[in-house]
Specification:
Layout lengths: L1 E8 L5 H10 L4 H8 L3 E7 L5 E7 L3 H9 L2 H4 L3 E8 L6
Antiparallel strand pairs: 1-3, 1-4, 2-3
């Protein structure tokens, strides 16, 4: 099933702290493996006043998606949390 994971800055974290983390860290090996194995099928960095990331995941369950998200370095460091939404068929034009 396909899920959209939309990040939010964790409570007590400033946008500057998150921007500093993203600027100072390349994509982690763990995150790259998720892309390489097509678990994360698309991602985008959010722009504007509130930095973050949106991930599209192909997994078997919401629990699996949550486990994957909780393993990301920005989540483990307490910088981000994610809202997880199941998606239906994607339409492209």
């Amino acid at each position: 099933m396909r899920y959209m994971a939309n990040s939010r800055i964790a409570e007590g974290v400033t946008p500057e702290q998150l921007t500093k983390f993203f600027d100072g860290n390349s994509v982690s090996t763990e995150a790259w493996e998720l892309v390489r194995h097509r678990v994360v099928t698309e991602y985008a960095f959010k722009v504007g006043d509130v930095p973050g990331i949106v991930l599209f995941l192909e997994v078997n369950s919401p629990d699996e998606a949550s486990d994957i998200l909780n393993g990301l370095p920005a989540v483990q460091r307490g910088l981000l949390t994610f809202d997880l939404d199941p998606l239906g068929k994607t339409m492209r034009f």
